[in-house]
Design a protein that fits this description.
three-stranded antiparallel beta sheet; mainly alpha; 3 strands; DNA polymerase, domain 1; globular; 2 domains; hpI Integrase, Chain A
Length: 297
């Protein structure tokens, strides 16, 4: 089975052009299944695999404490692998065809309220090293509702502060244009004029946000900066960059923005993904009602 897995990973890389991360995740899922199968059943060939093997493997993973989201990744990997094997006639039939994806629980996203966002942003200032850059980072994350990867990939040629628009590349390499708020534009202008020129090196490309070595910032570095800013602001340890994206959407909704507009601003392909914020807002309304209505308790 190992040689089939190797061929499949090559297919994902060369013919499908899928990311290294996806290839690695798929490889781990398939090799874990192959190892379990050999240990428990002595089966080492894809032609001997039957549906009961999948069920036993997934039950084993679930008993070991694997979350539904991770189980789903395992199921997807097995389904696409055996579909590929069947298409190339390496197996007579597809034993994974009828596998059902685990149902995922939907968790309401955490958010910061407007005062907490203000506290976080005001805790970042000129007095700290690269304070102009850091203030611009968080103002932009919140003002534009960006994913961290989108922020790290933002380029100067896609930023127009005269009309306050930024073009970003989201999931699936889909591009969208997002408005940049006045405060974020002011922070960006201060950083671009005051600090970015000092960060430029010979190898520097056109990324908006640079490290002190002149390279594009990484998502891990944005996480570190978020933790540092949250600590200075006296906020809880549970503050992370994507929280600003959730807060962006929730605050727009609570102030009357149309859900379709929020979908477009966030770059969601499906409105169902955006609708989760309506539940967040409903939770907030229930909380306010419970606290303040005389007959709610």
């Amino acid at each position: 089975m190992q040689s089939d897995i190797e061929d499949f990973i090559i297919y994902l890389a060369t013919e499908r052009g899928l990311s290294d991360h996806y290839q690695l995740s798929t490889r781990i899922s398939l090799e874990t299944f192959a190892a379990w199968l050999l240990k428990t059943s002595g089966v080492s060939s894809v032609t001997a695999v039957v549906r009961d093997h999948f069920i036993g493997f997934l039950e084993h993973r679930k008993r070991a404490g694997m979350a539904a989201a991770s189980l789903k990744l395992n199921v997807v990997a097995l389904k696409i692998f055996f579909r590929w094997l069947r298409a190339r006639e390496r197996v007579a039939s597809d034993p994974a065809e009828l596998l059902v994806l685990p149902r995922l629980e939907r968790y309401l996203p955490e958010t910061l309220n407007e005062q907490q966002v203000e506290t976080l942003l005001e805790a970042i200032g000129e007095g700290e090293p690269l304070g102009l850059r850091n203030r611009a980072i968080f103002e932009t994350l919140y003002a534009c509702g960006l994913r961290v990867s989108e922020l790290c990939g933002a380029r100067l040629e896609h930023l127009n502060l005269d009309v306050r628009l930024l073009r970003v590349t989201g999931k699936g390499d889909k591009m969208r244009v997002v408005p940049v708020g006045t405060k974020a534009a002011t922070a960006l202008q201060a950083y671009l004029q005051g600090e970015r020129p000092e960060l430029v090196r010979k190898h520097t490309r056109s990324h908006v946000f640079l490290s002190n070595r002149g390279r594009a910032l990484t998502p891990d570095r944005i996480w570190q900066l978020t933790k540092e800013a949250a600590a200075r602001a006296g906020l809880s340890e549970g503050v992370y960059p994507h929280l600003l994206r959730h807060s962006f959407a929730t605050h727009l909704l609570s102030n009357g923005a149309d859900l379709r507009v929020i979908q477009e601003l966030l770059g969601h392909a499906d409105i169902a993904t955006t609708q989760i914020y309506t539940h967040v807002d409903s939770q907030r309304l229930k909380s306010v009602h419970y606290r303040f209505h005389p007959r709610a308790k």
